Amino acid sequence: MTIHSVVIQKLLTTNSHISRQTVTHHFKQFTYGIRNKQAILDSDKTLICLRNALNFITCLSRDPSSSFLFINTNPLFQPIIDEMTLKVTTFNPERVSNLWKMRGFLTNSFSPKKFRSRNKKLVFGPTRLPDCVVVFDTERKSSILSEAQTLGIPIVGLVDSSTPLEFYKKVTYPIPANDSVQFVYLVCNMITKCLMLEKKKKEGEKRIGRKATSREEVKQIEESTGESKVESANEVLVIPYDNLAPLSGDIADMKQLLDKLVVVKFNGALGKNMGFNGPKSLIEVKNGSTSLDLTVNQIQSLNSKYGCNVPLLLINSRTTHDDVLKVLEKYSSSKIDIHSFRQGDQIQQELSFSEGGEDEWYSSDHGAQFLSLMSSGTLDVLLSQGKEYALVVNPDNVAAVVDPQILNHLAQNSVEYCMELEDFTSNPTKHSVKKFKFIDTRNLWVDLRAIKRLVDTNALKLGYLSMLKLFEKAIGIMIPQSRFLPLNSTSDLLLFQSDLYSFTEGVLIRNDARTTPTNPSIDLGPEFEKVSDFQSRFKTIPSIIRLDSLEVTGDVWFGADITLKGRVRIAADPGVKLEIPDGVVLKNEEIKDPRDI
Question: Which H, E and C letters describe 345-408, residue by residue?
Answer without folding.
Answer: CCCCCCCCCCCCCCCCEECCCCHHHHHHHHHHHHHHHHHHCCCCEEEEECCCECCCCCCHHHHH
